[in-house]
Amino acid sequence: MAYEAFAGVYDAFNEDADYDSLFRYVCGVLRAHGVEDGIVADLGCGTGELTLRLAAAGYDMIGVDLSPEMLSVLREKAWETGQEGLLLLCQDIAELDLYGTVRAAVSTFDTFNHIGPAEKFRRALCRAALFVEPGGLVLFDMNTPYKHAHILSDNVYEIEADDAYCVWRNRYDAAACCTHIAVEITYPDMDECDKEAFTEYAYSLEEITRACRQAGLRVEHVADGEDFGPLRPDSVRYFITAVKQAAGENE
To answer: pLDDT, tens digit, for every residue of 221-240?
Structure first.
């Protein structure tokens, strides 16, 4: 899922996202673990709202996304704000290949939900962990199985912005624990219509923890990914703090 059609209108459709609170939480976790500067990779960076905030906070940012269109939007934003020192890589994070190690990797807005089935998800975590220094962090959020079953489910959502209109249709597959999504974007005064289809996979916290362990990561904390408080049975998003283990280190 690369969000080709979404790139130009993603920010307009996502304008209610609380990037400031997300940035404060991520930055707080990084600094609490001694990661106050150095290289940080934003995996599935999209149009770079979090990437740019972290860059402004003093981190040397690498933005990784499968969509060249998303990276193009990010590059333009960086130029407009004078933050031109970003390294942007067009890659599938399940096949992540950085030039060296980073102090932390961050992935938000359910990027890892788009990676599946389970074996590919585990591989993506392994690739992320491979490039993180021992003692460094992998911070990521994921939509919960509760959200898939009770919020996404088989619902249809309509999203309207000034220059585009989106219809988002979900089809929940309980047996496979995933949601198949079809998106149609239309534009005022234009005949063209963009369509995309993709699948989000839901993983239990036990599955996520096991996958982290296999990647050499220790899950240190799980918060609610919306308000960053304690996790609840009806939380719609996990936010996971995982620490890269040193070679031979046991949990």
So the answer is: 999 999 999 999 999 999 99
